[in-house]
Amino acid sequence: MLVQTSMARMFAALSATNEAILRASSDDELFQRVCDAAVFGGKFLGTGVLLANDEGRLVCVAGAGVGVAALKGRTSSVDPNSEDGQGLAPTAFRTGRPIVSSDYINDERTRRWHATALQIGARSAAAVPIMRHGRPIGALLFYLDQPNALTDETVGLLERMAENVSFALDNFDRDKARDLADLARARIARMFAALTATNEAIMRAQSADEMFREVCAAAVGQGNLLGAAIFTPEADTSWFRLAADAGKYPEITASVRFSSDPSIPQGQGMGGTVFRTGKPCISNDVASEPRSKPWLPLIRKAGLTACGVFPLFSAGKAVGVIYFYFGGDDQLDDEMVTLMGRLADNVSFGLDALERAADRRVAEAHKERLTRMFAALGATNEAIMRAKTREELFRQVCEAAVLGGNFNSATMALARPDSDDLETVAAAGPDRERASKVKLSKSADRPEGSGITGRAFRTRKACISNDYLSEFPTTGHFYQLVKAAGNLAGAALPLVRNDESFGVLVFFSDIRGAFTPELTELLQRLADNVAFALENFDRAEEKREADERIEYLASHDSLTHLPNRETFNQLLHAAIGTAERNRRRLAVLFIDLDRFKIINDSLGHDSGDKLLVETGLRLKRSLRAHDVVARLGGDEFVVILENIGTREDVEAVARDLRRTIAAPFDLCGHECHTTASIGIAIYPDDGADIQTLTRRADMAMYIVKGDGKDGFRFFSREDRSQSLERLTLETNLRHALGRGEFMLHFQPKVDLASGEVTGVEALLRWCHPEAGMLPPAKFIPLAEETGLIVPIGRWVLRQACVQNMEWHRQGLRPISMAVNLSPRQFVDENLLQDIDEALAFSGMPPHLLQLEVTESMVMQNVTRAVRVLDAIQSRGIHLAIDDFGTGYSSMSLMKQFPIDTIKIDRSFVRDLPNDSEDQAIAQAIISMGKALGMTVVAEGVETAAQQAFLRRHACDEMQGYLVSKPVPPQDIVDLVRLPIALAPPLQPEADTAHLVAQSGI
What are the backbone angles phi and psi of residue 199, rounded to the nearest 5°? Predict the structure, then answer.
């Protein structure tokens, strides 16, 4: 077979290739010229240059002749196990030697190219490897239009062509390396100049911002960089802010945003990585970096090719990063990286130097602050000594602290007894307005209690934050408030008394690290002095309040805080005197709640008490400011209307009061309704003295009740005849004693220390032949009013003494017998004779008898009361004040009476030990009784908690349902024989014992 390509043509092709090599200035130009020379000089059908890419495939990068389009449209794998990796070019690439096919269209290795070969007329082909620095990078492919057209000599010339191409490629690399070396030396020289310039800038800078600006300018100006920039973290976020920059594209640099958060793309770049790891990042092909993807448009726009990013440190902690930007052919070698690293290290050194200078200034300022603080401590102590009020003390302490510590603010907050809130009572300093409005709490469960203030209160220890914005979460309740005020450090010092926090002193400063141990110690001393001063204030106020409270209780009802009976009588007496002098009229309205007992029995005492309190408030709101509203006891209220006009005016007031009381009450979640029966007496028409007016108003009220309740009525002369039921009851009451319808029940009194029964109280019961057992409230007031109480009381006294001796004859040990004296009995001239006859008739020793009187009885006529009580005591009989504390007497007058025992009223016992006011009153009565050498008895004890409180505070005896309800005589025997084992509280029936005791029987 004839060979179409002669040796002469091959030598011509070789010569043309060498000429192409000499003229080519780049790889691409070289490859194309070689292909052209082979086709046009060597008369090949076609030639192509195939280079291996990063994916392991041969790609046609240059070609000439027939079939080039097909070559450029396909790639081949260099993998020998791949289906398309068996061709001539892949095999030549792998083996590094020529591969020839003399019958191309029948060669199994070139099967995937047979169709193309037939189309272009290729019948033989050869592939020779292209080497670069001794390693294959691709292959030269030649194909001819005749089979068996490639001899050994021809293949040898093709190898020489490939070797010459390889030689040229190596030369290109050597030339490029020389050029890069020259550029590198120039860059190094410029970087040394930049390093010198930045060192000078670092030494001269007075602040970090000034140093950053000078360093960037020097790096770009002297180093001829594309740009330089310094970024620092933004407060409270993971993002960075541009602190300083210089360069060709400042607007591009300003738009760069990156983060230290590795979970987002903007945090995976070079800057975020450098900040997190503290190690530099270098890239000589920034655009190809996968981590540069978020900023690729900016990189391309700026022409950025290489970049070096280095961390900046202060006190061993990363505080920012510095970027060096390069463009064009600049490459970052080891020496260049070292110089950039030295520059970054010098900036870090400069930051430390600035920090040390700042520390020196802070230390000097701290010394000055300590000096001022000592002076402030002295001023505070002087304020403590001179302050007349708490408010004055609070203000002066805060002002002195700010003056001494140069704080942004000093605040004092005190705990509220009924709330988790802390109340700001004083503030001083430039930021005092903001500080005084910040809500504070002592509770850890509330956001307002999550800061240093709440923590100091709860732990009773100083709580210091010398870097508040770093130590507390950005989402914290106080973070934004502190930040907005420019505060960097804070201190909270607890105010402690009896090992319990009651307030906090809070200081904020705009200096980080301001609260050193020395300053904190001075502030703690200040807080301790304030706590001591407040304790003195408290003691003085507690004494004053106790005195005021005792005086108040003597004149007011403890439940509704309205004037009590004694005060009402005084006010009515004064009103009558004024009306008499001015010839004016006044009205007395006697008000009784119609359904109170039902509500009280159904919903309990708490609801009943709430109803009474709310009724008192409604009555006061419905009347004029100078009108009087008082509570006489139970559900009875009384009103004095002075300077009244016509009868119609009084009627209008009465109607208004009825409507007010008839409105629904919300009692412990229950809607309740009640009405009022109102009796009215007019001065001077219906009476000219206290007793007549109140009695006739009361009488009119009872007529209203008898007529169906819920109304009002003026007293009239015919009222007595209209009260048939009342007269009938009075008649029956007059015969009850002779018919033997009265009986006594007894309630034991127990020694709180031993549990032993020390005595009993005699309580009256009326077994009506038709109505059955009548409650004392039904007949005792009538007996008192009619005077029948005197003979009834005489019978009670004699029967009680007789019963006591009967128990003694049954073998019981001697016990005290307490008998109530009614107000009418106490003023009866035969009282002493009745007492003597009862003792003589029964044979009971006088010391076993105890007579109980109420405060109101002895206070009506103190001189006579002292004379009568002295006479009773001279007989060896003991005396007790019943229902003590409900408000008639003063402490100074109580000392005049020969009293052995005081009985704490059940109204002060009921809410023990939960009600702090009742606790204080009970303790005061016990203390007073002990100081006067009296026995103290608590009435109405119904729970073990009440009993425990009374025992703990040294009360002597108790009486109530916890021990026993009032029982018949035969039931007392077992109670007296053995000490009482206190049982769970009994549920009281109708509180007849208390009603009887109030009535004096």
Answer: -60, -40
